[in-house]
Queue: 3 jobs
Job 1
Amino acid sequence: MAIPRRILFMSLALAILLGPQHSSASCFGKDAHFKTTDQPVITQPSKTEPTLVLVSWDKIIQRPECVDNYYVRVWPEGTDMAKGQKIKVSEKDPKSPKGKNVVTSKTVTIEPCVNTKFLIELEELDSITGKDLEKTGEQLFKSAAIPKISNLDQSRFQVTYFWDPVKKVVDLKQASVSFPKDMITFPSCLDYVQITGSQVASRTGPSLSRQNSNSPNRGRALEYLGGKPLYNPEISVGGASTLPGRISYSDVTRGSSGSVSRQSSSSSISSTGSTEPQFAYALPRPRGGATKKVGPIKATAPFLQPMISINIPVEDCTQYNFEVQFFSARKEIGKVQNLNLPPLADIPGYVPPPVTSVIAISFNTAGKPVYGVKTSSGVNAACLPAYFEAYDSYTQRLENEVGWQVERSSSVQSLVSSTKEELEKSQEELLKAQGCVCTSPHLELTTTDAKVLKKTEANQLGHYHFQGMHGGYPYFMKMAHDHAGPHSHAGHSHGSTGSAQTTQKPTVSAQTNEPMFLFYDTSKKQWRFAGDLGGNKNLFFATEEKSVAKCPGDPTAKGTWQAATGTFGRFKKNPNVNVACETNL
């Protein structure tokens, strides 16, 4: 019994030494506790506020004075708890003894008409045993509400073909109608959403003898490499639209861009002389036959995602018109009609699979080719005409995109150059205000000293660009030339100040990834080059101390530069080291 008593005595002494901020006297040797069978109580305080529920656990917590924090976990049934809400509760209850206990109830927000799970976790911070965690059992609750529809905006409905996330193909046997659920108040309280549709009678293109097999606009992308006005592929004609440049490739392959781009108008076509896809129904279709009906297809709550998506079986890659109806309490409370599934060639979000993954070729015993369709591609035989038309449309959109991107790149580059020039003008004004004679933001560290050029420190030679202020003086950083262009401003003109100087190339490698700074050291009153701003890392070049030059490129700094080539690396004045004020770049 001696060892347990010793451990108990040491624990008691440690608790006394740590003080009340680490251990509570009333909780020493005790822990807060939930029974694993305990569950919190969930109530809906107001019928007019179905999104708010009160979670209480005051009846099931033992030793609440020992709890430092509670966590209320809230998540929809059938989903992962880790992806739900985790609400920390740490505020004190003024009605508890001495007002020190953490409150034991919390009002939380949920989605009405969704089976929602709740549990409580307690956290006790113990200076001896560490962090104690314990949780209750799960409680299930669903609040009630009546759904409402105020405005069903037809433009927010998207109709396209279904992207199969498992097979990684666009399934042309299924259409997908999707819309944001925020158009409905309490969408999960609906009885169901119903979709019906009817096939639009097929049109057929002109006879093959009259059909031009080549589009006059194909292969024009290279024309936009230069000399053309800014080309914008975001154009539409009829139901067709070019590929918007802002859509990522992953979005396009999933068809999430929607069926029709609404960001542009046909008026832009004439102004740009652009090329637009016009391939829908270019190939013949079978005639006759009654239009087919689909549905009703019903989707029931809960609707947990921001978008409600419903799949509908379709045939032959033909056009369909759909109607979406919303039902509550067995009555229709809203509907949207004339949602059109356009021709496959007119869906900019459709990226056709490669021809080699669609067409199968085999040979019979006579050696003649037999052509078939690989349905694993998502394309079936009845969809081949629509597939080939969509393939041509997709190629045309890519060509349009190439031209537009090239022109946009040229425009951006011009904007960057203009911005740099404006920035340099501002920098020159700042240097002038500091009293600099050399107001150029560009300086060049040079030397003709062969001994210096052989040293590794020769990699410090080169172009330095103004970066800002340090200790009340301008500082510069070594970087490659990126001057906005030749110009002349007050304070400097074309050409370098001082006498002409021929700079030899260093005989050692001048390439380095380490930064180099040119700055004024206020303690020594000298301009110096170093690898750390304000320090002396790799210090090799500097002016003499007590320099009177306002800026390192000023004439008063000329002839005062030194290099650390003296005995034991001491500074030695070197007339062959110079910092030139660059003004003709």
Job 2
Amino acid sequence: MLIRPSHWVVWLPTLWGLGVALPPALPQQDINTINCFDLVDESQWDLVLGLNMTTASLSVVVSGAGPPVITCLNRQTVRYLVSVVGDTTSQPYLLSELHTWEGISGQLVRDPPTFPYLIYGGRYRLQFTHCGQDRNMTDSCREGRDTKTVFSDFVNIQPSVNPWCSPAQFTGNTSLLSLDTPAVKGTTTVFHFSFSPCSTVQPYDTANVTLYSADTREECGQEVTASQSVEIFTNTAGEAAIMYQSPDLAGDRYYCLSVTLSHISCRLTTLERPTHCWLESDAVWVPATPIIASILPFCTSHFACAWLYIVVGGSISLILSLVMAITCVRCCERRDRNNSKQRDEVDFPGEVISLAPLTDRRGWAELHKEWESREEKARGKILLLYSPDTKLFKELQEAFKSFLDLACHCDIYDLFDDALFDTIALDPSEWLQEFVNDKDVKIVVMSSIGAYRRQQALAGEMPLNLPDNSLLDGLFTSGLRFISSYPGLATSGRVATARFEMLHLTEEGHKLGPPLSGPDTREFLIPTQLHELFCWVHQLKPLDLMGKPWVNYHLEMQLLQDALKLVRRDRTVMDRSCGGQPNFTDLGNGVTMI
């Protein structure tokens, strides 16, 4: 008796159970009408379901279904729709794009599917749908016509979702996310992200990254430069991490990166999504690299290749100098050869022009000997006016007077001379008038903070508070008023100011103002311009003298410099109180109140 094709569905399991092979002459259209997974024995479903709890995935193990199923699938030319389905509780945790496979029957044998992201607990099973065919041999799985469906047994899966990946933990939980500052390396940028994942990082975890560029930081996120899918890995801290290194980028632009995770928790519409499903980096500036970077990759910036520029520039200058030197030598030799060939002689009947002998220049040592050996040599006269700001500053003036006396060969007149104190204090103006009338006397006023503030007080621009014992201060104020108000004295060329260098009491901000400043009033910096002060007093020109000015006066110069160092170390007057002005009242060391 022949078996009709419509009865093969009933007879095939019996024949295979008895070890009988399919008839080789069976019509192909009859094989295509069978769902091969109907041949799976109920006891074999555990072998077909390849559950891997480590990777949270479920695979179709066709080899576990037995040789009859494999032979049936290899002979068929129909399509199958394989999907993971759950019960009413677990079905919301499934996605069709992740948990559905469709393909030719033979492909099930060669490359069976694996379904990822089974991380939510529940009961799941496989659904095998045999797709029908119309007369045009096109599949009709999507339409659901002429389909035959087989379900496997259920498998129980324990949840592997971390406790913080729940809607209650999303809000305000910023500790689960870390966005590192992008690192710029040449024309490439490296972005780092790390976060606490909802489940263990799996090999199939990926993220879609999109790189944006803009001219300004605020506009970054509109113009797409590149996009790519990158893997997610576990860092040393046990967190999920994403690293993306951009290709070579155009310089002088801002770049930022956005990341979209492919994790199932970020794709389910039935659940609230975690906060790290979409990440965005800060905008980073990528500078342009110089043209030389294309030849020398290590020259990522002009600063990095500064040494190269110096070497190349120096080499070019050296070569150019050598070429010019050789050219000049050759030209001179050629001109000499041409001149040697000219034998014409020209008579010169005129007189020989002779230059008058230049005036011999004197040396400093010779000039000093004129005062040391000849007593009748006139000494200079200097009226020195200074404000006794501190005790050490007054001692510095004594050292300065000593240097002017011994090294500059000058007689120094001082308002604070103890020997003439009674005479000066009786009438300072009369005493000063004698020196003004003497045309040989030069007047030097020392610029200092005290002198500056007294001049401001005389001009009515600053109040002057003097203590009870202010006799010395009054002498200087009287002398400053007399010199400033005497008609034509400040512009006569006989008055000059002087300041000690690198001293806080005589810094540039304390220079005296008009009439003791201007084009007709010299200012000397002590000790650098002491030789110019010497020439000004003795009416000499510094360029007419040769040698070192103070070669025979090292001791006097050293004593002056030592006194200057002591005042420089005395920084007590720089302490500020009461509105930021120096306080000269509560300090020791002979400070005078200003």
Job 3
Amino acid sequence: SQALTNIDKHNTDYFSGKGGGNGSNDNNGRGGDLRDDSVAITFSSPNNKNTHDNERKPKQYRSKLSPPPSQFSSYLKFNRPALNCLLTFATCYLLVLICCYPMISYSNVDDLANDDEVGAKHHIKRGASFQRIRGRNQFIKAKHAVTDKLGTLKHRAVEWEENAKLQAKREAMKLQEAEKDIIDSIAAGTIGRRDGMDARRASLLLEQAVEHFDEQRLEMEKEGWKKKQDAMAAGQNHWEDAVEAWDKEFVMENNVLSSVHAGSPGERAPIPGVMVLGMHRSGTSMLSGLLVKGFGYETGGPLIGASFDNEKGFYERIDVVLQNDEFMSAQNMGWSYNVVDYDSEKAMHHKDQGKITFNEGKKALEFLNHQNIRHTPYLQKDPRMCICLPTWLELLDEKPAVLFTYRHPLEVALSLKHREENFTLEHGLRLWIIYNMRALQNSVDLCRVFTTNEAVFKDPMLELQRIKNELTEKCGVLRPPTWVITDKVVDEFVDPKLQHNSKVRKAEEEKRSMLKDFGRGCVAREFESDYPEASVNRKAEVELYIMAMSVYCDLENGTAYVPDYEW
């Protein structure tokens, strides 16, 4: 339309000029050159519409412009390149939409759960249209689940503070109760008070002694009157022993209370605990369990758990065992080899030089050296302590008492052979000698109480009561919480099958020929071996067994306990 308007204006101006130059033309003036009216184009102009209505102009101009487009296809040609371009654009656009769909499909930030204002600001800062990024919802749900479970750091800090205050309050109450008990004990420590507390305590102790004696008498009657007569003939009067033991306990209880709470200068402080020394497989675990469960001696922890060869547990602290292994490993030895060459000074030198870390030892000393705040005696048991005791004595603030026990060497060697692979009787007998030798040599300057595995099996109640009394009275170890062991605890640890097996072994041993008589009823007899009778290994076993039996007999008669005993 614009093109036609311009052309019309141009022609009008043009033909208007021509007409002015040929004024001789009449109203029917025709151009001399325009002969054919069919090919002429007539343009009208609004300027001369009235003056030239019938005038016909000759053709002076032929338009070369193409007619204006009338279809969309005139602007864009749908050929192959154009179609390829459109298809590529559409494909890319579709891929962008698919990738951005999770981010643009959600736009309401108010629907998102927030714990606090900080969370809301965080979501708004990131943009409401980008809340559906893959995995974000799972992360938010997990975060809220953890927060709901554990609480915020602030809430947990408040909770910890409240728990600490509550624990401190409980400890304060316990201390008040303990002080009250101490005051009551001191107030009741005078014989003949009007309240009759001492009389009631003495009566109770006497009743317990009588009850214990009656149980022992019934057991003796079941085993036979002859055995009872033999025991009485040997000077063993259970009634007198029981009454005397309870009298000692009654007197000692008042003396301990007076000495502990009087605070008199110059008095010796009580020994904080006891160490059980003895060879592997010698009944140290059973003995420790009876003292811990029966009287309340404290071991701390964590402890080595039970196993197939010790179902009741070992009562050994893991950190002490690991530290003893580290001491030995630094000197190229282990619990079953080269232990005779252990050097305590070299172990301390390794500790000072950093050759050993002593990380486990620090944990153990935190428990063993807290005697100033301890009201219960500790009990530390590890057969390796027979070897490593001198090293620990240099690290302890207070020297402990020692409870030494032993077992028949052949029983120990057979037990080790059954438990360990490639373990010979000769090896077990040699270790038995070394461990017992080092246990007695390293503890010579300490207060010691002696017992045997056989004595514990023979009369557990009486033997354990004697051990506890000697540790408290003779050595001055802290008084345990429980003063009398119960039958329930004894039955839990003392297995009748083991007692029966020991009796069977002794009966079979009596039938065998004698290798050597050491006097006082201690005899070494023949034993079964895996080696032929005339072999070198068999001779080495017999020689080492006789050596071990010599030490065993000296332990039985007490000769091995003297300081100058020749090993």
